[in-house]
Amino acid sequence: AKREGKGRYVFYSEDIMQLYAENNKLANKLKYALDNSELILNYQPQYNLETGKITGLEVLVRWIHDNKFIPPSKFIPIAEETGQIYEIEYWIIESSLRQKKIFETMGNYDMTISINLSSKSLCSDINFNNLEKIFLSYDVDYSHIIVEITETAIISDIHFAVNRLKKLRDLGVKIALDDFGTGYSSLTHLKELPIDIVKLDRSFIQSIEEDGKDAMIIKSILYLALDLNYEVVAEGIETEGQLEFLKKYKCQTGQGFLLSRPVPIESIVF
Ligand code: C2E
Ligand code: CA
Ligand code: CA
Ligand code: CA
Fold first, then answer.
1. Which ligand 1 atom is nearest residue 118's CA?
2. In angstroms, what is the span from residue 177 Cα to ligand 2's centroid?
3. Which of 10, 130, 170, 199 has a 20 to 30 A CA-CA distance from 163?
4. How much is the pTM?
5. Among 40, 60, 64, 76, which residue has the most ligand 1 atoms within 8 Å of its CB, making it the best to mutate?
6. What is the pLDDT along the chain (270 residues), one digit of tens a residue?
7. How far is the CA of 60 from the centre of ligand 1 (A)?
8. What are 243's strand-pairing partners?
């Protein structure tokens, strides 16, 4: 990309070709990532904002290739395009359930484990059947397993998505609507979707201290969610001010760099 004054970028077809080639290379390397143990899972603690206690963990995948960190925002879309996401997500879910079992064995039954599920996985028939099977094959308390999905996953075919989410819920799993507020018609979705939790997107949290409007939106969502009986999780809490605001307006649960970054499971201090 060439820089053209005031931070604007103009893209030329060469750049697109280069990006395409790069993605192709990554897709090829990704094939071996699982077998070579290059994918690892980090866990970001979620806290009860009132008591400060850890109530759950969000599972976030990491790819370390040739000592370099490739962010999920880069390789997940590629994996979705190539279909590699199925195998990767299967592994993530299985590892997460195994971790849940370890907690239970240690006598900790209340810790929730939140797993991000790509829309691709939710929508593919064969894959979804496989997912249902792993979900059934672990003997854990499923009411403490949360599947996080984004609004964009649902919007393309809402009835279909609702059916799939209901199937997951039939297993006892809870559903969280991720990045809430960034989609098109969040409020309509809330009414139609079988969800238990809404996750306030980081973009709102970021500006609650300065921007009067975002603060109002957050307050309204918190009231609404309370009325509709949803749990609200705030993500991306980075400052004390943001934390205070969320506590003041009775947001039960939160996560963010201020409280803890995503870390390997053995680094979590309970
Ligand atoms: P997400 O599900 O919305 O995850 C939250 C992202 O925000 C994570 O980035 C997390 O590290 C980051 N984060 C948490 N607290 C803070 C904070 O206080 N400040 C800032 N600036 N960031 C914070 P990450 O791990 O890079 O993941 C990015 C996205 O990649 C995720 O967004 C999710 O959409 C996707 N992703 C990550 N792991 C998985 C996975 O296992 N499966 C699937 N399907 N997608 C995943
Ligand atoms: Ca998430
Ligand atoms: Ca999110
Ligand atoms: Ca996100």
1. 44
2. 9
3. 199
4. 0.93
5. 60
6. 555 555 666 666 778 888 888 889 999 999 999 999 999 999 999 999 999 999 999 999 999 999 999 999 999 999 999 999 999 999 999 999 999 999 999 999 999 999 999 988 998 998 999 999 999 899 999 999 999 998 877 777 888 989 999 999 999 999 999 988 887 666 777 778 899 999 999 999 999 988 788 899 899 989 888 888 999 999 999 999 999 999 999 999 999 999 999 999 999 988
7. 6
8. none
Say which ligand is closest to the CA of 40: 1
113 lines ligand 1 (CB under 6 A): no
Q: Tell me which H or E stretch contains 63.
A: strand 54-65
118-147 as b/e: b if 16+ CB within 10 A: bbbbbbbeebbebbeeebeeeebebebbbb
User: Which helix (DSSP H) or strand (DSSP E) does residue 180 occupy?
Assistant: strand 174-180
